[in-house]
What we know:
By secondary structure, the protein is mainly alpha-helical. The chain contains 6 helices and no strands. 24% of the residues are buried.
Amino acid sequence: MGETDLPETAAPSSPGLSALIPDKTFLTSRKGLLLAAELVLSFIIFICYLASSLASFMAAPLIEFLLALCAYYVYVTKYIDHFSGFHCPLIDFLRCVTAAVIFFAISIYAITKSAAASKTAGVFGFIATVVFAFDFYYICNNLISLINPQDLPTHTATIKKSTAEEESSDSDCD
Length: 174
């Protein structure tokens, strides 16, 4: 058998390396730009804390950088569509809320120090707080838009109606 006698194989059914190709529309979307800003700001804050006397605070921006990098990868490669077992936007919401609170807290402390690197980290920390706050605001709006009163089961609506009737009947007895 020669090389020309080999049977032709069809293209593989699994996506393979094409799954690693980033989604171009996500890169320019609001979420993509917010995640890119979170990555850049977290890395800058990490470097500033390394250069300052507050090196003990470098863990928070490093962890937020790694979490934002993982979220960016999951969104840009559309792996989020494969995770139907848990609600990724809710996890992303919690990531953004905790990051905003942590960056706000350590930025307040960093601003009070006299070193220039710690003040720079504090200023970038406040900017990161605003970026993370915008991100969790947009995620919260998306989560609320997913919840419609029409999607509630019928027994939940009857429970709410019966408790409202009980409250009105209790107020009549007073």
